Amino acid sequence: MSKDKKRTGPFAWIGSLFMGSDWGTKDDRYDSPGKLAVKRFFHKPLATGAVIVLAGLFLFAFIGSAISPANLTETGSEAMHTNVPPTNSLMKLPESMKADTVDISSRGTFTIGVDKDGKVHMWGHYFNTSGNPAKDVMNIPEEVQNSKIIHVAAGSDHCVAISEEGRVYAWGENDNGQYGLDGSMVASARRQPDELLEGTIDASAVRQLICGNQVTAILMEDGTVYAWGNDGLAATNLSSVIKHGKKEGKLEKLAFTNDGIYGIDEHGAFVYGKSTKFNTISTTDENGKVTTFDLIEYIGERKVEDIAATGNAIALVLDDGEIVVSGMKDPLPTLEEGEEAVSVSGGTRHFAMVTDKGRAYAWGQNFRDQCNVPKELQQEGAVDQVISSGFQNYAFKNGQYVGAWGLKGYLMGTDDMGRDLFNRIMNGGRMTMTIGAVAVIISTILGVVIGCISGYFGGKVDMLLMRIAEIFGSIPFLPFALCLSAIFQSSDLQENTRIFIIMIILGVLSWTGLARLVRGQILAEREKEFVTAARSMGIKETRIAFRHILPNIVTVILVNVTLSFARCMLTESSLSYLGFGVQLPRPTWGNMLNGCLNAIVIQNYWWRWLFPSIFLSLAVICINIIGDTLRDVLDPKSEVEK
């Protein structure tokens, strides 16, 4: 078969348009207009860069959001992580603490620790709402830095440390009785004991130092408890627990929840004071049936060996190795046959435990990856201690750091509800681009069909269609779109239906410009000889208009569609920015900016408006660059690059 044989078939024209023609001899081949336009387009560095950036944005928005969809429920928020700036330091354990760590403590976004040399370290982030440097919990006092510290603990907004000499230091917020005598605004707050303010204690006899939400407790070896802070809010059963320790059994260990304090005594009994919050536990059998038991009756004669607490749950390790959890519905990890729990620690929303086989397990809320234990730490003999603090976990073996898991930080920070901005920008981009694309498709179909019919048939048809276009064009676009969106938002329509209607509104109100452009091009094309020839052959008028004339102006339509896409994205963002587009919690780049409509956010939380605006600006600028470049390379009258 000859290599110069002509191509035939229905795809011959398409092939010659984009791949060039091979009709005739090899020397007679030529580049098609489409292929030539592509070459000219990618010879322009700015346009090539715009295509690469836009392709990256599309992959980021559509593939990324498919992998990590936005959580539109309250679980996507974290009240303790509101307005956190971009950071990757929330789990960054200092190097000097990776050998013989003494203590690590955290309840929120900042963590405090002390190493074997008595040096205090802090990492993470804390936003000082008061603006007073003296109340900045991340600002370690000079006297603490110059002392050898043996115990540290972090509350929600304050820290406490005990030096080797027995001096008790505290810093951070103190408006709710967290420490000291000055600045307390809570009349019912338990005062810090005078002996701690004015003197020292026997540091060698300190058994435990813990902080809760604006409350602190020191447990001594003899069972004495020093406690102070806003116990009316954060430890309502504190007095009854202390009373138990004095009369019924010396306290051995304590743990704070958000609103209470719990412990175990020397007899291995669970100490809950007057609280009734954790008096029951629920278990689920193999068939999924839930059974509720009285906690004390369930424990029976067994002794409690260890206790830990999250914000709203407690976990107990019994002497037979069983883990008992109250206040948490999340299932416990499955252990191997014969494997028993040895110790348990609690973070803000999760628990972690170590078994007698030297394995680490974690369970509870996992929205910040705090329960994703690395596989190497679940190997037999991998760990012998896990310290859970806030949303992180640190594993040790023979006093040496062997690994960590949990929340490292937020690449683009969080918003006022503690939602990850990176995730919301990714999912918001998909919504913004989808609405823009659908609106452009609708407006393009309307504009091309109406413009083609009007320009080709002319006369009364042209008169009627252009008057309709003028009516639509005279409507104030943004106010009318706002009114329609407001009407639909006040209805009982589902969110997806309202979003679809927003797409329709954008498409129906933005076709007039393209219709006039197509009409003008059709008016010029219909007078050419190939149209006269088609009519003389008896071809139908609609076929001539849409199959013969329209392909000749497709380049003009393509440029307009590209620029309209950017315009529709901006319009959707404007509607959402003004509160009339897609509603929260479903994200778009526009309604994310809507949440930054005040001077406080603009001045203090720059990441909340900067990143959405950067992504929106990049997308629109790249689309406009591509559209302008297409207009240049598809114009047959432009200068051909050599």
Short descriptors:
642 residues, alpha+beta, 3-stranded antiparallel β-sheet, disordered N terminus
Quick overview:
The chain has 642 residues and is α+β, with helices and mostly antiparallel strands.
Describe the structure in your own words.
There is one protein chain. Mean pLDDT is 85; it is low at 1-5 and 23-28. The chain has 642 residues and is an alpha+beta fold. The strands form 8 sheets. The protein has a 3-stranded antiparallel beta sheet, with no helix packed on it. A 3-stranded antiparallel beta sheet has the order 4-5-6, with no helix packed on it. A 3-stranded antiparallel beta sheet has the order 7-8-9, covered by helices on one side. The two termini are 36 Å apart. Helix 3 (45-67) packs across helix 9 and helix 9 crosses helix 12 (495-508). It has 19 helices and 23 strands. Strand 5 and strand 6 form a beta hairpin.
> How many strand units?
23
First-last Cα distance: 36 Å
Structural class: alpha+beta
Low-confidence stretches: 1-5, 23-28
What is the tally of helical segments? 19
Mean pLDDT: 85
Global geometry: elongated
Work out the strand percent: 15-25%
Main sheet attributes: strand count, strand direction, barrel closure: 3 strands, antiparallel
What is the gyration radius calculated from CA atoms? Answer: 34 Å
Sheet with the most strands: spatial strand order: 1-2-3
Tell me the helix content: 25-40%
